[in-house]
Design goal:
Strand order of the largest sheet: 3-4-2-5-1-6
Largest sheet: 6 strands, antiparallel
Helix content: 25-40%
Radius of gyration: 14 Å
Distance between the termini: 7 Å
Number of strands: 6
Structural class: alpha+beta
Strand content: 15-25%
Length: 164
């Protein structure tokens, strides 16, 4: 059975360290996801213009803006999205693909596909809206404790696991 371990982090550098540690402990990049607000796109810095719905693209593997900096380089499928009610975000990993199809349902809608109950998904969506970084690991049940421990080691809060 697959489970998702999820938590939120305040610092981009700590999120990057957590992702590196997860990879060093054998978690594959197709198991790890990151979601964060793209503050640069929000203000237009580094882009010269606002992100629009028509520009959404997670298929080219490049992240616009610096919201998750080096983390995006550690994971596949990083790119920008505009989520109604939240604004521009950067997403990387398998959750990025789920968010592409769930733009109208926001981050909470994308998390449902990862086994996260809607109420908890809304909580995590609000945390991203406030500027926190969401880290999710979709993995086998026998690796849940290891993933949760690594997230906590690097300062993640609200660490939970949910089975699908």
């Amino acid at each position: 059975m697959e489970s998702t371990v999820i938590g939120v982090m305040k610092e981009h550098s700590r999120a990057e360290e957590a992702v590196r540690s997860l990879r060093e402990k054998g978690f594959r990049e197709n198991e790890i996801s990151i979601v964060a607000k793209d503050e640069e796109a929000k203000t237009g810095e580094g882009r010269g213009e606002e992100l629009s719905y028509s520009e959404q693209n997670l298929s080219d593997g490049t992240a616009t803006g610096g919201a998750i900096g080096g983390v995006a380089g550690l994971l596949m499928g990083a790119g920008a999205l505009l989520i109604p009610g939240i604004g521009p975000i950067i997403a990387a990993g398998p959750l990025a693909g789920a968010l592409t199809g769930a733009v109208t349902g926001g981050i909470a809608g994308g998390l449902i596909d990862f086994g996260i109950p809607e109420e908890r998904g809304k909580h995590y969506e609000e945390r991203v809206k406030q500027g926190d970084i969401l880290v999710a690991i979709k993995t086998s049940e026998d690796k849940v404790d290891s993933a949760a421990s690594i997230l906590r080691e690097f300062g993640a809060k609200d660490v939970e696991s949910h089975s699908k």
